[in-house]
Amino acid sequence: NDSWTISTNYVAATTVPVVLPFADDLDDLGQWDVTGSWGIDTNLNCLTDSPVGDYGNSMDTYAQSAVNLTGTVWPVLRFTDSYRFAADDYGFVEVSPNGGAWTRVYGVTGTQSNWTEWVLDLSQWKNQPNLRIRFHLITSGSGTDDGWRIDDVSVTDRGTHALPVPFYDGFEQGGSNWIERAWLVSTNVPYAGSNLLVYGRTHVRPETYELLNLGASADLSLSSNPKVTFRIRGIVQAYSALLFQVSPDGGLNWANLWAV
Fold first, then answer.
1. pLDDT of residue 9
2. Exposed end of the chain (fewer CB within 10 Å): N or C?
3. What's the whole-model pTM score?
4. Which residue, 209, 251, 245, is CA-closest to 228?
């Protein structure tokens, strides 16, 4: 008889969704399932795709956890990260309600030396009892680098936030009315006033759906003819789109009102 030896690099840490609030300072893998070389950088006490040396070529690995969003009103994911990727290598944050269909809500490549906090809106998946969240590394067959470091991951419920109508934001006081941190306040030739909001990444990562969400909902039941006015400038590359969307049900479903 032939004998077989089966080996795996999959580490099972947890398989049950965590009840909110979920918070992990990532001193260990107690709340994560990981594949490949994902592990804890014991010098910095953070999660990384390669605790020792560079990540490898042709990698497709992840670190995954899950949360129970039952009863939530406005769930958000927070984390801090830094990274250094070779050309054509990427890291993604992806979510899935069933472990099959994944949505990319954040993507990185290139270099970010400083630790930066990100806040991602998960309202589209509120009330999901077992929402999977994973940090996903995909690399090409040539060139490696130090990789992705992630720390202080949390999922919390923001609850209800009301928007006063009429509402105006010229970003003179910063971006505190909005949730997505990939957009940054700038003084580079605003239409009016001294500030405007710009997309702060070097370029948009492949097949990534990134949001700039207003951090409150508006009650328009007493409005007879509500309108939204905004001004934009810039360039949208091929195979990409900028959409203006509204949701009538707290972020579960979105309708496109404008696109370029």
1. 46
2. N
3. 0.88
4. 245
